[in-house]
Specification:
Layout: H1 9-19, H2 40-48, E1 62-69, E2 82-91, E3 96-101, E4 107-110, E5 114-117, H3 120-138, E6 144-148, H4 150-159, E7 163-167, E8 171-173, E9 178-180, E10 183-187, H5 189-197, H6 205-230, H7 235-245, E11 247-248, H8 252-262, E12 270-274, E13 277-282, E14 285-290, H9 294-304
Parallel strand pairs: 1-6, 3-12
Antiparallel strand pairs: 1-2, 2-3, 4-5, 6-11, 7-10, 8-9, 13-14
Helix pairs in contact: 4-5, 4-7, 5-6, 7-8
Length: 308
């Protein structure tokens, strides 16, 4: 995994002096005790914190791997299977991004392990092994990753007041607890987890589940944009939610850069898709065979991070 090095240190030090420890305990700073709106200086600092490509890498997308472990409360998240895998590629220059999902049963080569279901990569070698697997499969370097389990995911959603999601079709799945009418609904942590886990009451099983997980990620981006428009300092509430409920190789400064970079992305220019494939079997296991057509998607994303 190739981790991008960014020249953020001086800026983040300056921001820390402004933010203070309040941001790290969830108290977003305001312009003054009498004002509810942030000052122009605050807004300018947040905008300057955004990621900018290094010289010679202007066209290479910023890549983030979102990993959801099936770890239950009290379990070590890396000692379980990765049941949600999405590679998010971001192009700040084009104001666009792609969310590419991988069904958990995708039958792929896991470095140092062999050909297995892709969700076994987490159990066999942690988030770094998952990133290596995705890189080997797609040829796309992974810069950063986020990893969380069931409880961390629920707390993260709750910490930002829930996420509004447009439910694509009515759901009634007792296994996941996903019981929803079609249409927009603000989901709390438990509901968001149920929506993201449902695969038995979907049109295309795990392919649909991966697509719905991408819908949730896209919905979270929209919610972050709305929060930022109302109050740019709300970005710190989201950062705290992420820092306290995920494992990541992002430093706090890089996390700030990533969050502010996402403010450059137009949600209407985000494509959510799942690798094409078919179901089958390998021995006694039910697996997903990724189609050769996925190679065109990988190549398109490698070019600039966006589809088309």
């Amino acid at each position: 995994m190739r981790r991008r090095v960014a020249a953020w240190t001086a800026l983040f030090t300056a921001l820390c002096g402004w933010v203070g420890v309040g941001a790290l305990i969830g108290e977003a700073p305001t312009a003054s005790a009498q004002e509810d709106t942030p000052s122009p200086v605050v807004i300018e600092r947040l905008q300057r914190a955004a990621y900018w490509p290094a010289e010679g890498e202007e066209n290479r997308p910023l890549t983030v791997l979102a990993i959801g472990s099936d770890a239950r409360p009290g379990d070590e998240v890396e000692a379980h299977l990765a049941d949600s895998l999405h590679l998010i590629t971001i192009n700040p220059e084009a104001n666009g991004a792609t969310i590419l999902g991988f069904p958990r049963d995708s039958y792929v080569e896991i470095p140092g392990v062999g050909t297995r279901k892709i969700n076994e990569a987490l159990f066999s070698g942690g988030a770094e092994r998952v990133a290596e697997t995705i890189e080997g499969l797609t040829g796309i370097p992974v810069d950063y990753y986020f990893l969380t389990g069931f409880e961390g995911f629920k707390r993260m959603v709750g910490a930002v007041g829930g996420i509004e999601v447009h439910i694509p079709y009515a759901m009634n799945d007792s296994a996941s607890g996903a019981v929803f009418d079609e249409g927009p609904q603000v989901l709390d942590g438990s509901q968001a987890l149920a929506f993201s886990r449902n695969r038995k009451n979907t049109p295309n099983g795990d392919f649909s589940r991966s697509e719905n997980q991408g819908i949730f990620i896209h919905s979270a981006l929209i919610a972050l944009h709305r929060a930022y428009i109302e109050d740019p300092t709300a970005i710190f509430q989201w950062m705290v939610a992420g820092v306290t409920n995920t494992q990541t190789n992002l430093s706090l400064g890089e996390l700030l850069q990533l969050a502010t970079t996402m403010m450059q992305i137009d949600p209407a220019k985000v494509t959510n898709l799942v690798v094409p494939g078919s179901t089958g079997s390998a021995g006694d296991a039910s697996v997903v065979f990724i189609s050769d057509a996925a190679q065109d998607i990988y190549a398109d994303i490698r070019d600039d991070g966006i589809i088309g």
